[in-house]
Please model this.
Amino acid sequence: MTAPPPAVSVRFSINQMTVKQLSLPGLVEACVRLGVRGVGLWREPVARYGLDATAKLVRDAGVEVTSLCRGGFLTAADAAGRAAAIADNRAAIDEAATLGTDTLVLVSGGLPPGSKDLAGARERIADALSSLAPYAASRGVRLAIEPLHPMFASDRCVVSTLDQALAIAERFPASQVGVVVDTYHVWWDDRAPAAVARAGAAGRIHAFQLADWVTPLPAGVLNGRGQLGDGSVDLARWRSLVDAAGYPGPIEVELFNDALWAGDGVALLEETVRRFGEVLA
Amino acid sequence: MTAPPPAVSVRFSINQMTVKQLSLPGLVEACVRLGVRGVGLWREPVARYGLDATAKLVRDAGVEVTSLCRGGFLTAADAAGRAAAIADNRAAIDEAATLGTDTLVLVSGGLPPGSKDLAGARERIADALSSLAPYAASRGVRLAIEPLHPMFASDRCVVSTLDQALAIAERFPASQVGVVVDTYHVWWDDRAPAAVARAGAAGRIHAFQLADWVTPLPAGVLNGRGQLGDGSVDLARWRSLVDAAGYPGPIEVELFNDALWAGDGVALLEETVRRFGEVLA
Model:
C-alpha cells in the first residue's frame, strides 16, 4: 500500500520551472495523478515540445494553464531592438491564447548596455505596452507586470516594486494590464501590502506566485529560491493579504533552485503540494 | 620622473574596507602621500592594530576619521542577545569618540533565527536606539542608520530603504540619529531621491558612501561592489542629489570586491581617487 496522495487545493498551481526536470507529458501526467489542476508554463519548453501539441496535451488532460512566462524585455533604447521586442511579445500573446491561458507574465527587462537611466527604461516599458495591451486584449490575454527583486534591477527587470509596476499598469484598463505578486520579489517591502490592497481593489492582481527567501544566495542569484517553509517569508500572511485584496485566482509555486532540480521531479511536485498545504494552513 | 598624484577632492574619503589589503600604517601613509584627507575605519582592524595606537596614528598624520563601521545588529529578540548588543554598541560609540569621528555607522541586523517578522525586528532597532542615542550624544557621536540593499534583508539588515531608515531616525533628534546614503544600496529605489531631500533638509544625512552596481553578483552577494564607473549607478546624479539636499560632508568610497582586494592596495587607492574625480566631475 502506498500513502494516499495529499489533498490539493483547487487554487494550487505548479509553475513548470519548479520541476523543470520533468518533460511536459511527465508534468501533466503527475498533475493528473496528484490532483493538481493548474500549471504555469514557459515559452521555451513549450516551443520545444510544440505549441499545438502542448495545447492538446493540457486540454486533453483537463489541466488549466494558469499563466505563460514570459513576455517583456521591453527596455531596448534602439528602434530595431524595440521592434524586435514588440514582435516577440505579440508572438508570446498568441502563444498564450493558443494555450488557453488569459495571463502573460512580463519580465520587463534591464538597463540597455551602458545605460544608467532606470526612469527612462521604465518609461519605454509603458510606451511598448500602449501597443501590446490592446493587442493582448483582442486575443483574450491580460498582461501581468512582474516586479522583480531589486537585485535584478540592472540586468533583468527595472521594475523593482509593486508600486512601480502599478504606476505603469494604471495607465491601462485593468482588464488589459495588471501585476504579478510574487512573494520572493516583494517580501522585504513594507509598502507592498498597501500596493497589494490597491491592486486587488482595482482588479489588477493578475497572478500570485510563491517562493521562499533563503540565504546564502548563489552566484548570479537566479537559482536560489527556497522551497515553501524553508526561509524568511511569512507566506501565510502574504496569502491572507492577497486574499483580502479580493484575488480569487490560482496560486502558483515558482521555485528556481539547482538543488531541487537535481532530484526527482515527481517527488518534488509531491513535496511542493505538501508544503503548500502546510505553510498556507 | 613619475606622474604627479591626481588632485584629490577635499571631500574624498577612503573607506578602509575598499583597500583592506593595506595595513593601517600603510593606509595612512598612502593617504598622506596622495593627499587623501579622510578615512572611514572598521572596528575589527582598528582593534587588531590597537584603538589608542590607531587614534595616535591618524592624529599624528593629520588624517580625519570620517566614520566608524559599524555598530548595529540590534534585532535580537531575547533579553541576553539584546543586552549584549547594547553593550557592544556602547563600546563602538566609545571607540568612535576615541578615534575622533562623530559618526558611527549602524548595520541594523537581520531576522533572528526562525523569525519571519520584519516589522517587529525594525521596532526592536528603534527600541535599542532609545538608550543608545543619548549615550552616543554624550560622547559627541551621531548614529547613522544605513539601509542595506533588500537582498540583505533576512540575514544582515532589515532596514532596506532610506524611507525605512528615516522612519526610525525621525523618532530621535537629528543631532543624535541620522542615515547613511550609500549608492550601492539605494540606487534602484525611485523613492530614494525624495528621501535624500527629506533627510538633508532635516540634517539627517550623516554619511554618504559610493559604490557602483555590477553583475553578475558573486555567491553570498557581499563582495561584488563595483569600482566607481564600472556599473549601472549614475553616481554623478546621486552626488548632485545629496549636495542639493544640503550635505556638505565627506564622500566615502566603500567597495567590497574580491578581485580588487587581490591587487596592490596603494594602486587601488590611486585608481579609486582617479575614478572619483572622473565620475563625479
